[in-house]
C-alpha cells in the first residue's frame, strides 16, 4: 500500500490519470486542435508572467471569497462546462458537483453532460449553471431555457466558439467516437422525444448562428446569460451592447481553433472593452494557484478549470476533484500572502510585472 502523499499538484494528477484512463479517453481530454499550439500557449503565457512579492502586510487572515454574477463564491475557481464526466469516473457529474458544492464554488454543467442535467439539479444545494449552444432550432433553444429555469439553474452559459467542428488529430488517429449526448434525448413539455432526439444531433454546431441569435436568447430568459468562447475586445463590446451579463475569455482550452493567443494574453483587451459593463471570466491553462492570482491581477473576476477536473475524477472521483480544487486554493493562498494581498479585492495589476510578449 502506498504511504506517499499522493499527487501534490495538478501536473501529478494528470500524470496519474494518464496511467489510469484508456489512451483514447486520455487523448480526447488532454488534446487540442491540430498542432496544439494554443493548448501549450495557454500554459506558456501564464508561466511568462512574473509576480511582485510584497512584505510587511498583515496577511494573517486570508480571505479568498469573491462574487460572481453578484453572488458569493468561496474562492474564484469555478468548474468549466465539460461533456461526459463519466469518461473519467462512474460517478461522473454527481462526483464533480459534490466536490464543487463542498468547496463553495460554481459548477457549470455541460450540454453534453453524462447525466441528465435536471437529475443533477434535483440533488443540488450549491450553485449550478447550465451550458448550451445557440441551437439552429430556436424551439429547441426555448425548450432548453425553460428546462434550465424549471430545474433551478441560476445562469446560462452560451458556448459560441463551437459553430464549426474542430480538427483534433489525436481523435482522428485513435478513431475516437464520442458518446451520445443524453440531454438531447429528454423532451420538453409537449415534445415528442424522437423529434427532440433528431434535433439534438446538431449539437454545438450551428454554423449559421449570428449575434441576433445571442440577443434573442437573452430576450427569452430572465436568467443571467454568460457568453463563453470570446477571444477579442470587439466581441466583448458586442456582448456588452446586447446586455450579456458576463463573458468567458476562452479558446476552449485550445480545442477548437489552434494558433490563437493564450487567453491570459487576451484578457487585458477584454477588460478594456468591457469598460466595467460586464463581468470578465477566463479559462484555459489554469494549473497553479499563482495562475489564478495572475488572472485576477489582470482584471478577471474568476477563472474556470476544465481538464484538471477530469484528472481529479480519474484519480479518485469526488475526493479527487475536491483535492484538485483544494490544491489550487492552498497555492492561491500562499501566492496572495507572499504578494501581501490578504483579500481578492486587494489583488490589483501591481501584483504582476508587465506582461511580456511571448517569443
Ligand atoms: C474533455 C473536455 C470536454 C469539454 N466539453 C465542453 C463542452 O461540452 N462545452 C463547453 O462549452 N466547453 C467544453 N470544454 C471546454 C472547457 O469548458 C474549457 O473551456 C477548457 O477545458 C478550459 O481549459 P483547460 O482545460 O486548460 O482548463 C471541454 C473541455 C474538455 C477538456
Could you explain how this protein is built, in words?
With 359 residues, the chain is an alpha/beta fold. The protein contains 13 helices and ten strands. It has helices at residues 10-20, 23-30, 37-48, 92-102, 117-122, 138-151, 169-174, 193-200, 211-219, 233-241, 263-274, 289-297, 307-338; strands spanning 66-68, 71-73, 77-79, 107-109, 128-132, 155-159, 225-230, 246-249, 279-283, 302-305. The chain has an eight-stranded parallel beta sheet. Helix 6 links the parallel strand 5 and strand 6 (155-159). Helix 4 runs parallel beside helix 13, helix 10 (233-241) packs across helix 11 (263-274) and helix 12 (289-297) packs across helix 13 (307-338). The protein is globular. The structure holds flavin mononucleotide (FMN). Flavin mononucleotide (FMN) is lined by residues 29, 42, 80-83, 110-112, 131, 159, 228, 250, 252-253, 255, 283-286, 305-307.
Task: Provide the fold topology.
Layout (H helix, E strand, L loop, with lengths): L9 H11 L2 H8 L6 H12 L17 E3 L2 E3 L3 E3 L12 H11 L4 E3 L7 H6 L5 E5 L5 H14 L3 E5 L9 H6 L18 H8 L10 H9 L5 E6 L2 H9 L4 E4 L13 H12 L4 E5 L5 H9 L4 E4 L1 H32 L21
Parallel strand pairs: 3-10, 4-5, 5-6, 6-7, 7-8, 8-9, 9-10
Antiparallel strand pairs: 1-2
Helix pairs in contact: 1-13, 4-13, 10-11, 12-13
